[in-house]
Design a protein that fits this description.
The protein is mostly helical. It contains two helices and no strands. The protein is elongated and about 55 Å long.
Length: 57
């Protein structure tokens, strides 16, 4: 969960910098790609998360 939140935070920061700074539009694109990767990671993680894993003793 912390990796997902970190990726979303990085995407937002890159998006803001890419939008605000002149000539750094590529950072906005990178931020959007990072956000898509974070959403895909969360979808895979939450889909698998419903199963209980047995702990070996």
């Amino acid at each position: 969960m912390s990796l997902f939140l970190f990726l979303v935070l990085v995407a937002v920061v890159l998006g803001i910098i890419g939008f605000a700074a002149d000539g750094l539009f590529y950072l906005l694109i990178i931020g959007a790609v990072v956000l898509l990767v974070a959403l895909a990671y969360a979808a895979v993680r939450f889909r698998r998360g419903g199963r209980k894993h047995r702990v070996a003793r």
